[in-house]
Write a structure and sequence with these properties.
2 helices; flat; mainly alpha; single chain; 0% strand
């Protein structure tokens, strides 16, 4: 009876080396261009969100409050 696994050899494990694939293999300029195209397409289709000044203030305030919270279990100095 044959097993369901293929008889093709597997590549040897590379220790510590990772191949760069996808966005990691692209230059920062190319990544920025592609991301920009996605944002433009999102807004052109009406699905993009634009923050009002009030929404932006609220988001910044909430983020600031969260980042200033003491870590759990940390004792006060």
């Amino acid at each position: 009876m044959e097993t369901s696994s293929s008889n093709t050899p597997r590549p040897a494990n590379r220790t510590g080396a990772k191949s760069r694939r996808g966005f990691a293999a692209m230059s920062p300029e190319t990544q920025r261009r592609i991301a920009s195209e996605g944002g433009k397409a999102s807004h052109a289709s009406g699905r993009g969100h634009r923050f009002t000044a009030e929404e932006a203030r609220d988001a910044g305030r909430k983020g600031g409050l969260v980042s200033r919270r003491p870590a759990r279990g940390a004792s006060a100095a």
